[in-house]
């Protein structure tokens, strides 16, 4: 049987379309389907050869195009060429148009002027990269979020993911026997989150890491004891800061932990507002 | 008139759904509509109150839910409560099921085991954050991509964005009169990309930056000359490396520049393969 191919066609960067298709494909594990991304497709001349190839190869086409003319052309061409094509954003734009009682501007997002929110996000990413791994303790008080945890609790990928959402994030590794810098106490304590992880999974991660670095794992008899002492030390720091939520990252995808962190920030914010009203 | 509200309801982290809705909302600028995200909604009991509130407040509901039962429940409840609800991923999953000739597993993505690709992405992010701003020249030869350019050519946000897509990225600032470290020559030259930007826009960005740092802009008479010399110095480095593509980031969103970089890597890869065949 022929290989399955999915052509994703977008008038912008295709990031959104690709994300949706990849999310849907997770529901069909090991399907072996190949995804091909076609970005900045903004004319009939650019779209047509992609559809023709899809017809020849029996590929499925998924598209996000905001121009109604180009959308119509893709629909008509697909019908003519007998290509299965799915409009990913058309019906959403239609519903939004009715609900908001407005006409869409029909301009590809990559051609729109950059928003204030965009520049805030860029600034958040730069802040976050500079504030990784405890490098800028002075930034703790400027941060929207400070993540604290032992090595390999996903601090760096969590920080950059949340930065993409506009949060300025700093993170601080907890190292056995090393007191956190005094700047941590100056941070908004409502904005500090502790990260922890199970002992066994952490031992496994550290072993894999040692192997990767070409070091012998057997040589490190004391690894488990050392990891245990580290986690206990982190716990002792957390227990002197009862206002910090502590999130267990064991077995969780970064994306899920990120959502839990955002929910905990929201809850603390709401609790603070309620407390204010009571006073 | 009431404020417009859009409830985004997801059985996972809601990242994909939020991205799609935000992309569609760009077509309705200044609509003032508020987006509310409801994550990890996996039961009828969790979904019902969200739909009831949407009914009371006349909100639009957009959902991504993989369980057919929960999807059916949301459809039925929306009909009963007269809520406008749009299924964002249902028809895509349906089409994929027919095209791939397989049944979907109907498990929320956040509950699936983490894939190898996921771990590669995490590793890429960690590599990239460590290799920001020329901090780890030793990493140039291990990198999938090395970005080279003067300050404020978006090296950091570009690097982290591409890292989320699984690329190990290192970046190096070009500083007037400072020679790039010898490690740059040891990097795979097919994987180096130069970044440039227009003189005037860069002068504006630098001025804004000085203001932000609380410095007087007037005091810096020579700013424009200095920026010009810097860009010329960068150009002189680029011209001694004709194999590097040089991308102008002026007025471009990070997402768009990222796509251009990916396309240029692909083209060079293809050119190399063709050259090999000819030989």
From TrEMBL, chains A, B:
Coiled-coil portions: none
Claim: Nucleotide-binding is one of the keywords in the record: yes
EC number(s) on file: 2.7.11.32, 2.7.4.27
Sites where the protein binds ADP: 149-156
Pfam families per the UniProt record, alphabetical: Kinase-PPPase
Keyword field: Kinase, Nucleotide-binding, Serine/threonine-protein kinase, Transferase
Catalysed conversion reaction: N(tele)-phospho-L-histidyl/L-threonyl-[pyruvate, phosphate dikinase] + ADP = N(tele)-phospho-L-histidyl/O-phospho-L-threonyl-[pyruvate, phosphate dikinase] + AMP + H(+); N(tele)-phospho-L-histidyl/O-phospho-L-threonyl-[pyruvate, phosphate dikinase] + phosphate + H(+) = N(tele)-phospho-L-histidyl/L-threonyl-[pyruvate, phosphate dikinase] + diphosphate
Entry GO MF terms: ADP binding; ATP binding; phosphotransferase activity, phosphate group as acceptor; protein serine/threonine kinase activity
EC top class, as a word: transferase
UniProt entry tagged with the keyword Kinase: yes
The family this protein is said to belong to: Belongs to the pyruvate, phosphate/water dikinase regulatory protein family. PDRP subfamily.
Biological role stated in the UniProt entry: Bifunctional serine/threonine kinase and phosphorylase involved in the regulation of the pyruvate, phosphate dikinase (PPDK) by catalyzing its phosphorylation/dephosphorylation.
Matching PANTHER family: PYRUVATE, PHOSPHATE DIKINASE REGULATORY PROTEIN 1, CHLOROPLASTIC (PTHR31756)
Protein name: Putative pyruvate, phosphate dikinase regulatory protein
Organism encoding this protein: Labilithrix luteola
């Amino acid at each position: 049987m022929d290989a399955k191919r999915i052509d994703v066609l977008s008038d912008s960067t295709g990031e959104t379309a690709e994300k949706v298709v990849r999310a849907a494909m997770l529901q069909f594990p090991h399907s072996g389907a190949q995804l091909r991304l076609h970005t900045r497709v903004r004319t009939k001349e650019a779209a047509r050869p992609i559809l023709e190839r899809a017809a020849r190869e029996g590929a499925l086409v998924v598209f996000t195009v905001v121009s109604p003319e180009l959308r119509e052309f893709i629909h008509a061409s697909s019908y003519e060429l007998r290509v299965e094509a799915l409009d990913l954003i058309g019906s959403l734009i239609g519903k939004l148009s009715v609900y908001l009682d407005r006409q869409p501007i029909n301009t590809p997002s990559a051609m729109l002027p950059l928003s204030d929110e965009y520049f805030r996000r860029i600034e958040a990413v730069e802040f976050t990269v500079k504030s990784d791994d405890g490098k800028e303790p002075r930034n703790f008080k400027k941060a929207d979020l400070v993540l604290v945890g032992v090595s390999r609790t996903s601090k760096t990928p969590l920080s950059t993911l949340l930065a993409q959402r506009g949060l300025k994030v700093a993170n601080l590794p907890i190292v056995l026997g090393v007191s956190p810098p005094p700047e941590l106490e100056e941070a908004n304590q409502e904005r500090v989150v502790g990260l922890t992880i199970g002992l066994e999974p952490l031992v496994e991660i550290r072993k894999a890491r040692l192997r990767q670095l070409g070091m012998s794992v057997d040589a490190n008899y004391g690894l488990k004891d050392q990891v245990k002492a580290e986690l206990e030390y982190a716990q002792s720091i957390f227990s002197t800061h009862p206002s910090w939520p502590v999130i267990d990252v064991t077995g969780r995808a970064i994306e899920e932990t990120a959502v839990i962190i955002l929910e905990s920030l929201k809850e603390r914010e709401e609790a603070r507002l309620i407390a204010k009203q009571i006073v």
